[in-house]
Amino acid sequence: MDVSEFDLIDSCFAPLSKDYEEAYGLKNDAALISEHPDSSTVVTMDTLIAGVHFFNSDPADDIARKCLRVNLSDLAAMGAKPTAYTLSMAYSDDLNAPWVKSFVRGLDADQQEFSIRLIGGDTVKTHGPLTITITCFGSVPRHRCLKRNTATPGQDIWVSGTLGDSAAGLQILKGEVSFDNQELRDVLVHRYQVPMPRIGLGICLLNDNISNTAMDVSDGLLADLSHITKASKVGATVLEQKLPYSNALKALFSKNETLKMVELAVTGGDDYELLFTADKLYRKKINDLARKLSLKISCIGSINSDKGVSLIEENGNHIHLSKMGWKHF
Amino acid sequence: MDVSEFDLIDSCFAPLSKDYEEAYGLKNDAALISEHPDSSTVVTMDTLIAGVHFFNSDPADDIARKCLRVNLSDLAAMGAKPTAYTLSMAYSDDLNAPWVKSFVRGLDADQQEFSIRLIGGDTVKTHGPLTITITCFGSVPRHRCLKRNTATPGQDIWVSGTLGDSAAGLQILKGEVSFDNQELRDVLVHRYQVPMPRIGLGICLLNDNISNTAMDVSDGLLADLSHITKASKVGATVLEQKLPYSNALKALFSKNETLKMVELAVTGGDDYELLFTADKLYRKKINDLARKLSLKISCIGSINSDKGVSLIEENGNHIHLSKMGWKHF
C-alpha cells in the first residue's frame, strides 16, 4: 500500500472540498452546514461493500460514482437539491495510488455533474472488504419533502426511465446470462455500475406541487410500491403492458422470454428510477415535464382502496410473481 | 442470525427516532434537519471497526456508546451542542438478537445523556468485521465554531480531564500490562471502552468567547497539539510536571516507570479530552468553568512563535520521545 492516511485526506480528498469554505479543507474535527433559513437540510446515508454492492474489479471511478448516486437517488426521492456529502472509507492494505486517483476522479466528475462538495468524513483501515459509507445532504423548502405515506386512491402511478436494465446488467456481470451485442450489453452493465439519480424530476415534483409521494426504486418496482401502499394504507394496480423497457433489455430477451423480462423489471431492483403518485389532473403537466427533462416518465397503473399490489396483464389476468420465485410478497 | 433487516430497522432502531418527527419513523428515504435560522449545523463522521477500534468481546452497549461518543467528542471540539445522528451498521451473519438489544440499549442510554436522536441510516450485510459508521449533527451559532488554525503565541495550552488512562486500559485489555487492583483496572478499561466527550466544556469555550482553538485528543496529546501548531503556524511547549494523571494511572506505574507513564499520557491517544488554547487573561474564567462543570482543566504549557512541539521536564530539559519509539514526529 503506497497511500498513507495523510496522503489520502490531504492530497486526495481535501481538493474535493475546495469550494466549500466551512469544510475548512477537511482539517477541522467537523464541517458546518449553514442552510438558508427558508430551507431544511435533507440527510441520507448509504453503505456499499465490495462483493455485495459492487465488484472489486469494477472501475474505481464507477465505484465512487455509484456510492454517491445511490445516496443522490434518495435525495431525489425526497425532492431535494443535493448540496454536500461526507465520505467514510474503510480500506485494506492493498489500496494503491492509481486506484485512489481513479476513485477521486469519479467523485470529482459527479461533484461537477450534481453541484455537490465533499465536506468531511473518515478513513480507516479494515481487514474486511472495502466499505464505503456516504452521508449526503440536500436542501428542500423548510419542513417540506416528498414522502411515502401520502398516496390516495384514484391517483396515477408513474415511474421514470426504464426498469430491469440494472438487474440485467448484474446478471451479465455474474455470467448468469450472455449477450452477444456488445454495445447493448455495455448499456445494461453501465446502468448497474453507474445509476442515474433523477434529481431534476424530484425537485420539480415537490416544487411544482405535482406529487407528495415518491420513492426511488432500489429493491424492485413492486417491493418499493408496496412500501408506499403500506405506509399510505392503500392498494395499487400495475399494468404490465405499461411498464417501460429499454431497447437493450428487449433485445436481451427472445419473444418467448417475455415473462422473464417482466420479472426482471418489477423485481430486479437497483433501478434508481423515481416511483411516484399524482392526481389524474396532472397528466399533462407530467408529460410536459418529461419533455422538459428529456426523461421518459410512464404512467404504469393506479392507486386503489384495496390492500397490496397487483400486476395485471393486458387481458386482465393477474400475474402471480410468487410462482416465479419472487420472495418479497 | 435471528434478526432480519426488517426487525433491525422497524423494531430495534425506529423507536430511537420517536421524538424526532422529521425522521418519519425511519420509513422515508431520508430525514430532515430544520436548523434554527440563527444556527449552523455541525457535521462529523467516524467509522469504528471490530478488531480495530473495539474488541468483538466488548459489551455491545459499550460498543454503541463508544461509536456515538467519538463523534460527540468531535462536536465538543467544535463547540457544538449535539442534536441528532445517523447510523450505518455493516454486520455479519452471526449477529443475534440479545447483542442487538444490548447495542440499542447503549444507544438509548446515550441519547438520554446527550439529548440526541437517531434520525436515519442504513443496515447492510458484510462478510467482513462489524463496521459501524455514525454521522453526528450538532448546532452552533451561525457560521461560528472552534477551529485549529487560530492559536497565537503567548496563549496558554489547556487540557480537560486526565491523560493516558484510555491507552493504559487498552494495554490492559491486550494483556500487555497487568494490574492487580481490580477497581482501578476497571477505571482505566472503562475510559477506553466508554470515553466521555467534553460537550459542556466545548459549548462554554465557544459561547463565552474563552477560546477559538480546540480539538479533541484522539491521536495522542503531542500529535494532536502538533495539528494545532501546524494549522496555526506556531510552536508549543508542554510542561511535563503539569500533565494531569489519574490516580488509577499513577497506581499502575511504579516510581521508576515515570517516563513510561509520561509516554502513555502524551502519545497514547483515545483520550477524547479537549485540548484548547486561550489568552492568559482567561485563566480565572477557565478555573471558574472547571468548578462549574466539575471537570479538571489543566494549564499544561504555552504557545510560542517557534515551530513544533516541545515537552519539557521540571529541570528544563527537553524530553525526546522519539527515542522512546514514538513515531508521530
Automatic annotation (TrEMBL), chains A, B:
User: At which positions is Mg(2+) 5 bound?
Assistant: 219
Determine the domain of life of the protein's source: Bacteria
EC assignment: the record states 2.7.4.16
Which pathway features in its UniProt record?
Cofactor biosynthesis; thiamine diphosphate biosynthesis; thiamine diphosphate from thiamine phosphate: step 1/1
User: What would you give as a GO molecular function for this chain, any one?
Assistant: thiamine-phosphate kinase activity
Family membership noted in the UniProt record: Belongs to the thiamine-monophosphate kinase family.
Give the miscellaneous note.
Reaction mechanism of ThiL seems to utilize a direct, inline transfer of the gamma-phosphate of ATP to TMP rather than a phosphorylated enzyme intermediate.
Q: What is this protein called?
A: Thiamine-monophosphate kinase
